[in-house]
Amino acid sequence: MSRTIGGGEEFVTGVLRIPHGKGCPAVSERPKILVLGVQGQLASALRPLLAGQSDRRAIFLGRPELDVADSVRLRAEILAHSPAVIVNATAYTAVDRAESEPAAAYAVNRDAVAVMGETAERLGAAVVHVSTDYVFDGRATRPYRESDITNPQGVYGASKLAGEEALAASCARHVILRTAWLYGASGSNFLRTMLRLANERDSLAVVDDQQGCPTAVRELAAAIGIIIERIIGQDAAFGLYHFCGAGGPVTWFDFASEIFCQTAGYGLPTPRLERTTTAAFGAPAPRPAYSLLDCRRIESVFGVTRNDWREALATVLAELAAAQAGPATGLDISKETLG
Ligand SMILES: NC(=O)C1=CN([C@@H]2O[C@H](COP(=O)(O)OP(=O)(O)OC[C@H]3O[C@@H](n4cnc5c(N)ncnc54)[C@H](OP(=O)(O)O)[C@@H]3O)[C@@H](O)[C@H]2O)C=CC1
Ligand SMILES: Cc1cn([C@H]2C[C@H](O)[C@@H](COP(=O)(O)OP(=O)(O)O[C@H]3O[C@@H](C)C(=O)[C@@H](O)[C@H]3O)O2)c(=O)[nH]c1=O
Known about the structure:
By secondary structure, this protein is α/β, with parallel strands linked by helices. The chain has a domain at 2-187 and 216-247 and 291-309: Rossmann fold (3-Layer(aba) Sandwich), CATH 3.40.50.720. 40% of the residues lie in helices and 18% in strands. It contains 12 helices and 15 strands. It has helices at 41-51, 71-81, 95-98, 102-123, 155-170, 190-200, 217-232, 252-264, 278-281, 296-302, 309-323, 335-338; strands spanning 2-5, 9-12, 15-17, 32-36, 57-61, 85-88, 126-132, 173-179, 182-183, 203-207, 211-212, 215-216, 239-242, 250-251, 272-276. Strands 5-4-6-7-8-13 form a 6-stranded parallel β-sheet, sandwiched between helices. Helix 5 (155-170) links the parallel strand 7 and strand 8. Helix 1 (41-51) crosses helix 7, helix 2 packs parallel to helix 4 and helix 8 crosses helix 11 (309-323). The longest helix is centred in the N-terminal third of the chain and has 22 residues, at 102-123. The protein is globular. Dtdp-4-keto-L-rhamnose binds at residues 93, 95, 132-134, 180-182, 190, 193, 197, 204-207, 210, 252, 276, 278, 281, 283, 287.
């Protein structure tokens, strides 16, 4: 099976082969980066980033061709590709659904990560893994540091913490990046949910008692790109890092307000926003009331810079507008495009 997805890259039975230019090292000599995950927010943001590196080979493997919960196949695929670096961009991210599907959440968020770690250790490969602010209980009064005690409140956060622990136990060289409130121009995220709901309703109630900071997925991908380079250059400090947008804390209500403030500039209708509470909203999964991440460690060790979340949002909206340019507004937020 062969089909083309975005930017002319060829997608062959689940393997995305990144084209390369002249004068590059032979294909077999280039360090291979195996990205697990194809369609998700992070995998989609990593694709153009890794495509720009002519001296690396990047392979994307994910559903439907590879189910990472199939541990036998996952192990076999990693061994067959024998990468220098594995980036795990798969996860079970349905926070509310995880409460009633814990086995499915743990299969992807813990067990698959354990297999990635064990297999990487056998190969001498490094693993870059992504985790979440939802490993914390939200009772802090200052940004969470990497050394702070975890205490997840829901199944999703608990399964992600179990994945962190499984990777650490594997003894593979690894970097775990905890991030928060990820969003981008594509995929399933709060920004796109807000734009879709604004198409359907005149008013929206949004919780104003959970504090954190939105993170543009393209910025997380850029940080991962820097970390991959340092790993390949044998210059990486492995371990646990926090990474989220700068300028927080804000609430989901603040995020929604800023979204509609900025999209008004594109001539889009602005729904009336009402503040609500987590209790009144009544989502099935508990979420931390405060989950701002202290990101000084990744800034100092890897030189990663972070943008103010409002500026990052403006960039993402411009990207969305460019990708979906409509003649009238420049930003097409029809139900069809937002899914
Ligand atoms: N989204 C967020 O707000 C946040 C995310 N994170 C973490 O960041 C990382 C990236 O998240 P993000 O890109 O947003 O997540 P997405 O939900 O956008 O993508 C996850 C991807 O994993 C794939 N996947 C799930 N189960 C399997 C499986 N069994 N086999 C193969 N692939 C599978 C999904 O495939 P399919 O498309 O087929 O479902 C999907 O493409 C995750 O580790 C997540 O926990 C951390 C903080 C915030
Ligand atoms: C759609 C909607 C949500 N909300 C609330 C529910 C929830 O408390 C908050 C965020 O809702 P969402 O369901 O979009 O986001 P949620 O699934 O909680 O997002 C989380 O995803 C996982 C994967 C993470 O790792 C976290 O960092 C975080 O980004 O906003 C409203 O108040 N009004 C609304 O109309």
